[in-house]
Fold this protein.
Amino acid sequence: MGKPTGFLENTRQLPAKEAVENRLQHYGEFVQQYSAADLNKQASRCMDCGIPFCHNGCPLGNIIPEFNDAVYRGKFDEAYEILASTNNFPEFTGRICPAPCESACVLGINQPPVAIEEIERHIVEIAFERGYVQAKQHIVRTGKKVAVVGSGPAGLAAAAQLNSAGHSVTVFERDDAPGGLLRYGIPDFKLEKSVVDRRIRLMEEEGIVFRCNAEVGKNVPVGDLLREFHAIVLAGGSTIPRDLTVPGRELDGVHFAMDFLKQQNKRVGGKSTLINPYQPLSTDIVATGKHVVVIGGGDTGSDCVGTSNRQGAASVTQLELMPTPPMERTPNMPWPTYPMVYKTTTSHEEGCERQFAILTKAFLGDENGKLRALQVVDIQWTGAKDGRPASFAEVPGSEREIPCELALLAMGFLYPQKEGMLDQLGVETTGVGNVRASERTYQTTISKVFAAGDMRRGQSLVVWAISEGRECARKVDEYLMGSSLLETKDAALQFTI
Amino acid sequence: MTSLYLTEADELQIKMAQGAKPGEGGQLPGHKVDEWIGKVRHSTPGVGLISPPPHHDIYSIEDLAQLIFDLKNANRSARINVKLVSKAGVGTIAAGVAKAKADVILISGHDGGTGASPMSSIRHAGLPWELGLAETHQTLVKNKLRSRVTVQADGQMKTGRDIAIAALLGAEEWGVATAALVVEGCILMRKCHLNTCPVGVATQDPELRKRFNGDPEHVVNFFKFLTEELREIMADLGFRTIEEMVGQAEFLEVKEDNLANNFKLKGLDLSPILYREPADSSVGLYKQEEQDHGLAGVLDWKLLAAAQPALEAKTPVVAEFPVINTDRTIGAILSNEITKKYRGEGLPDGTIHFKFKGTAGQSFGAFNTCGVTLELEGGANDYFGKGLSGARLVVYPDKTATFTPEENSIIGNVAFYGATGGEAFIRGVAGERFCVRNSGVTVVVEGIGDHGCEYMTGGRAVILGGTGRNFGAGMSGGIAYVWDVAGDFAQNCNPEMIDLDPLGDEDADELRSLVQQHLELTGSSVAKFVLSDFESEVGRFVKVFPRDYKKALAGKAAKVAAE
Ligand SMILES: Cc1cc2nc3c(=O)[nH]c(=O)nc-3n(C[C@H](O)[C@H](O)[C@H](O)COP(=O)(O)OP(=O)(O)OC[C@H]3O[C@@H](n4cnc5c(N)ncnc54)[C@H](O)[C@@H]3O)c2cc1C
Ligand code: SF4
């Protein structure tokens, strides 16, 4: 804490954003940088709490007050070192994390919390600019080979950690480029792909081998992996989307959000939208000139809103089954928990009608089998328990049609794909369908096979994926070497008594 | 401590030590001492407050007994509580404290305490309360003293289980502080000393205090659950009341597994803690009888009777009493009664004028309030004017005495300790530790011993004679005028916090009028001499001016000038 009274003198301020009408003209990032003085002010707000709840709020256990202090003192090399010690990819989380650390920030009890995420982004960008981020040289090799399946944040984090421990890591990715949802899920306007490329290049320099267009269980036999590698990390994500099986689902114009988003990311990347190594698509999904309805109120839905607006949709409506969340914390979601409050994303700022407590009953088509409208009904939630509604009933007489030519299903993901790799490996899955591996060991029912990220914990966040990758790497290292010096959140628990 | 403060209390605690920082007092850094705190604490705003670590009036168990007696005189209905730190040997100390007539003994464990405890203190923190409490209870039972005192324990007690264990080890009362604070919104910021507590708990900053959003209901709820848990445990063990439970250590069982499986705990023998001192049915295991504080036959009852017209109608009264050195703490009960009726203001100056002849016992005039004048012909023992809170004390030798007053001690050590107001004129020499932590008394004396005016924060001390060494150590407020006849005063000072300045015109006027009063009230020949050639004698006076105080006064003057 550079300044004990910083939080009394300065209030939270986020960097300026490009005006909506301008940013809608392109797919690039639109959040600007702080001036040096503003960054210093924001860092000065950190109180260096006796019990820094932000540590605990952050799934990675980022050492937040220390890097805030270093930023306040203008020591960006030190700040980066602290940040990188717990987070392999601050350039990702600094941009797209919902920042549970900020929800947990002590200042947030009665004031706007410290702008931790922006400070994080600035640290890493300044570090890149000044050349503090360098590929690790002279890694002593252990002679052990590890395969990582999936190159999303979990796979990347596991690969980076295992490589730094000296193991030879090969990452298998079924898509044509590494990054997982960072590359083909999260839109460029939230995370430009040059940021992903920059990191992948560094990892390659450090000796990690990426094999794209390589689907394990299909064109890479599972047996090869089991034979050739000393350990395998499964980080294939939770990829099976939740469907909406109502009449008219088969109509032309009803699509999964991921298909839509992925195509746009490919377009921005200058690639063909129809060629996909593992799941070819027959049509281009575009929102231009259409009335778009996004079903599902989460992150994916919001990304669809932003993408549709950029493509020039005639209108964008987002439907959510749940009732409007409260604007502020309620007694059921006290500080320092992550609150389920009404959230307006930058995509929402760009124009979108949001409707809550709405049920989609059917997709209605025209004579050509093309979607023309949605049939919806208002619902009434009842039996609230602990602040969460328990059951709903349709409001009689509220049935109506919403004109719509493109409906995007963004209702979350159920579980990882079983067909192929998981089936062939024969690893056990949990009741919900995720790969079974405990959070203490990350080990699946096959001893040399580990699992991390959404594939293990179900759909979640990038920050959790990185955390899982790191913790899993530590367990793999212990498995291979008997002990490990890799950073881990529960090193204290390792101390055996 | 003013008479009002003491009178208002339900319980008065003498903090001999605290668990988190034994041997040190509470600490309030200067920047947290604002106008308001300065007023409450009788100190200079902006000047740090370090409660004196050693009690300058307590060097032995007898001294403690005297303080307990003083406080009991100053407020008969308050319980007197003595706080001790949990440590090896605390049982013996507690036995002494029980014999010194404390009503309550608190055993304080190491892990309580505030975030403001300095590093140097934390290194000397006490032991877990369990150890000290068990020893205390066993020793008190063994000496058949347990039934005379209430035993309390504290130090991070948070659950009904903690309290149940404390009861079984021998405490019938418990302190729960941190947990309650956390319930109110404390988030353990450890910024108590910086005045920047963001939840408004430990700060004087009005902006931050607005952010406090604690709710009394939460605290009530917390204690409800705490006691409910305790009740459940009691029901499990078959106790109907806490009294049945106190000291029944055999109901505690060691979790042998835990000991065996932990490398640090292996080999630990807990039996001395769980030992139960054998006692037959005649020995009480909890507080069952009141201490005999010996107030029945004290002189004050006579003073009180004589003062009735003053108390009832502010009618001036004059009376004379013989005293002997077993008459202790004269005037405290009287002042307590005045304060009950007339609050902090007391009576108009000179309403009560009592004259005493003989040698007074300890604590003459302790905690005496406004409107009381005690004139003593003879001499007095230690703690003269302790905690004086508005009264006037005058003492001179027996008129028939043949010795030279300014060369002989007339009052004992630790005079005016912690005094907050009033005035005193002493025709003769005082002992050591004169005016320690004085915050408002104006006093004239004709010589003092070592450690004069230590930790003084306010008031005036005129010393018409020599001083011992270490004068003015830790002095942060008030002024002393010292007649430096021998020219060696500077050598006797502790220069860390004070400046030695010549007197200005205002100082000289103030000094002259005080010496004049001294002459009138005591007939002092020293005063007479000084006044006979004041213009030249004033040059031999040194003004002891604490630097902090100087700064605060300059700041105030600048503020006034700006307005
Ligand atoms: C549209 C969208 C927006 C999101 N926005 C955010 C956000 O703003 N902030 C946030 O924190 N989280 C966000 N999330 C969630 C976040 O992206 C995921 O939780 C995270 O990416 C999971 O990481 P992962 O490494 O476990 O899996 P993924 O990122 O899903 O990566 C899995 C990878 O494994 C590959 N793979 C799968 N099976 C095989 C196989 N058999 N062989 C080879 N490769 C295989 C897949 O192709 C994929 O590339 C979003 C999710 C979506 C869908
Ligand atoms: S909780 Fe907030 S204010 Fe406290 S240390 Fe963490 S970032 Fe700083």
Summary: The two ends of chain A are 35 Å apart (CA to CA). Chain A touches chain B at residues 4-5, 7-8, 47, 49-51, 53, 106-107, 109-111, 497 (CB under 8 Å).
